[in-house]
Amino acid sequence: MRASLRRVLIAIAILLAIAPVLTQDAFYQRIAALVVLAAISASAWNVIGGYAGQVSFGHSVYFGIGGYAALLAFTKLGLPPIAGAPLGILASFVLSAIVGLPSFRLRGHYFSMATIAIAALAGLLVTNWGYAGGAIGLMGPATPRSPADLLFRSPLPYYAIFLVVLAILLVLTWWMERSRMGFYLRAIGSGERAAASLGVPIRRYKLYALFISGAFTALAGSLYAVMIGFIDPDSGFGILVSVNMVVMAALGGAGTLFGPLVGAIILVPLEETTNALLGGGGTGAAYVAYGVIIMLIARFSPGGLAQFLPRIAARKSPRAA
Amino acid sequence: MSITRRGILAVPALAALPAMAEAAAPVRIGCIEPLTGNAGSAGQSIKQGITLVLDIINTPHPDLAPLPLAATSGLPRLGGAKVEVIWADNQGSPAVGQSDALRLITQDHVVALCGAYQSSITLTASAVAERYGIPFVAGESVAANLTQRGYKWFFRTTPYGPDFGKLYLDFLAYVAATGLAVGKIAIVHENTDYGTSVAGSITEAAKARGRTIAQTISYNANGTDVSPQVLALKNGKPDVVIFVSYTSDSILYMKTFHTLGYRPPIVIGDDSGFSDPAFPKAVGNLAQGALNRSAFVPGKPDSITYKINALFKQETGRDLDDTTARAMQGFFVLCDAINRAGATAPDAIRAALAATDLPASRLMTGYKGVKFDSSGQNTLAYSLVIQLQGAAYVPVWPLAEATAKLALPFKGWT
Description:
The structure holds 2 protein chains of 2 kinds. Chain A is an all-alpha fold. Chain A has helices at residues 2-22, 26-51, 60-77, 85-103, 108-127, 156-178, 180-190, 192-197, 202-228, 233-237, 239-252, 259-278, 285-300, 305-316, and strands at 138-139, 230-231. Chain A is built from 14 helices and 2 strands; from the N terminus they run H-H-H-H-H-E-H-H-H-H-E-H-H-H-H-H. In chain A, helix 2 (26-51) packs across helix 11 (239-252). The radius of gyration of chain A is 20 Å and the shape is globular. By secondary structure, chain B is of the alpha/beta class. Chain B folds into 2 domains: 2-159 and 300-382, 3-Layer(aba) Sandwich (Rossmann fold), CATH 3.40.50.2300; 162-294 and 385-401, Response regulator (Rossmann fold). In chain B, strand 1, helix 2 (40-58) and strand 2 form a beta-alpha-beta unit. Chain B is globular, with a radius of gyration of 22 Å. Chain B starts with a helix and ends in a 17-residue tail after the last strand. Chain A binds chain B through residues 25-27, 30-31, 34, 127-128, 134-137, 139, 142-143, 151, 153, 155, 224, 228-230, 232, 235, 272, 275-276, 279-281, 283-284, and chain B through 33, 35-36, 40, 47, 86-89, 91, 93-96, 98-100, 102-103, 106-107, 120, 123-124, 127, 130-132, 143, 145, 149-151, 191-193, 195-197.
């Protein structure tokens, strides 16, 4: 059973790799690139939110830091935006240490609430920070000065870059899943007090998880800013940025390796194509679909599709077990 | 079923217009607007406005003859081809606006784009148009940086930040000549994108003339109390207060002025909140004499603007507002250029746009004309100063366009 599930997931991964080459249509190629980008941040969220069960609704703070780092590197230092990505990752480490130590004392909903507050605070600070463009935001290079600016007409190069980053993140997660850290995190996720009583160094491992999670979310933010060429407090630090990560991971299966990717494969095209098909007519239809999906998951499969699919498979072949 | 019915209807229509029997393929234009989200009402209003322009262009409107393409049906130089708009909802997100632009260009094969209301989205969407070499006409976004990018395919018909700053200072210079003091200017602006950028532009314009802004107050438009800000103004005693505000906050300011019994000598509201139909309704009796800017005024009953406003009112039940009118004007300019190009090749349309030279008499807005500089900015864009007198705004400056006399100082309430 588990082997066949793995085969399905590998097939999805392969499909994902060749999808944009199969279609010559730039719009679908862009959707594919956006799927992978969303999968990066959702998978990054998954490390702390899924495996360790610390549901953060404030991950936009990392996304925003990464995005701003990229465009600050361009506007203030004249560097290619991607050169700001390491700075964003560095800043994410500092932030994780500052934020993680006090907020990890909180559990469950209280932790989630603290993360919302931190992201809202960061958004306000940036809105009033004139140096970083304040409420107006920052613009990337208007026209490519060199190939390093990563400004392409075709979405395919973005897709390729994002895919490499996603692959690194997934391999890292896969390795972590099997290592001592993975067991520790799952133990923390299913019961902090129990894990502590068994000698798991809870706060240290939560902090490690936050370091990994925050760094990759910041990288996703930088990649977003490079591709879109613009960031403002809302697109960087807005609450929807955080919510999207959580919903994608939850739909696919939080705490599973491919869950966030599956969620992104379903939700991003849904949003983009309903907007395209309905155009001006069915305003907000995508949000209705979003809401229905969230309700269905919560009611029938709180563990996400990763939990739901095997269950169906098991029901179809009851004797196979 | 519906196809058959449409076919039956089409036969007499074609018979009646033999010249257009082999009607040319429709010309598709992509419009990216905020049809949902925070700015949804503005986007929907723009959609209604552009739909009206489509009707004016695609069917004969001889009574609106001075407007480009009004008297004829479709685009005459393209064999009477009809203009068609593909709508895209930008959802208030710069990333979505960019997806929209890409989709409209690569899937719907539009010949040009227009939009996108929020300056941040115009910025990202037009970057895609630039890479694909498709003309983009911005009729309503005012951020200064849009035309500072060295783009080849970007054109903006609307006046932008610096124009507004210039307008207010020109106007204040006129007021000073009548003997009123205008030395101390205060700017009160909401603290997001719109307020910050316009306040910045006004400050720059003042600096360029060697004047300084005595007081700048930034506030959160979602707040429920503005008495601290009003008290700060009361202490500062400015001669002129310029508001860059949204709707509910502008209403709150006028109410607080009344509550605290404070009347600045001159009150200017920068469009937006002061132009919302809700503003005169809610505080018309407290804001008598408030000044505002607008590129559109209905004017006298036989004028084109009056007729367009009547058509719009017939469709929607409300008067045409400044933003919608500017968006419609941009769309007119784009269609006129496509017609003059006589082709739908992007290069031809771009060349025609660059060569645009429309006089004020052929516009529906108060611009002095439409003529683009090398950055794509309309150099003749202009606005009027209007004043709330009674239940409605009336144009008071420049004097050539005025239908009522400027009444100062700010009266507020009686």
